[in-house]
Amino acid sequence: xxxxxxxxxxxxxxxxxxxxxxxxxxxxxxxxxxxxxxxxxxxxxxxxxxxxxxxxxxxxxxxxxxxxxxxxxxxxxxxxxxxxxxxxxxxxxxxxxxxxxxxxxxxxxxxxxxxxxxxxxxxxxxxxxxxxxxxxx
Length: 137
Hints:
Blueprint: E1 2-4, E2 10-18, E3 21-29, E4 34-36, E5 39-40, H1 41-44, H2 49-62, E6 68-75, H3 79-97, H4 101-108
Parallel strand pairs: 4-6
Antiparallel strand pairs: 1-2, 2-3, 3-6, 4-5
C-alpha cells in the first residue's frame, strides 16, 4: 500500500508475520536507516549480524540498501520471529514499489510466510507430543 503524507513524502507499507510476531513496515525514500519501535535497528536487534542479515535481505538482493529508510512497529514473539517478520514486511513493501521486484523476491523465498508455529499442548501429555514414561505394571 502506498501512502502520501501531508509533507508530500510517499511511504510504502508492508505487513510481515512469523511465529507470534507481527511487523508493520514503512519504507520511505531516504538514506537506509532502520528504526524498530523508535530504537535504531542495530541496537534493537542486539548488534546480531544474523538478525541484521535476515532483516536487510530483500533490500540487499535488489541493491536498494541505501535507497529507503525503514520504520518498523513490531510486537510479539522474540527477536528471531521479529527479524523474520520484518523481512517479510520489507519484501511486501518492495513489491508495492515496483511489481517487477516480485519475481526476484519470490525466487529468493522472501515472499513466503513461514507458517511454523508452536503446537498446542494436549491433555494427558507433558508437552505437545511428549508423553509421561510408560509403566507396564
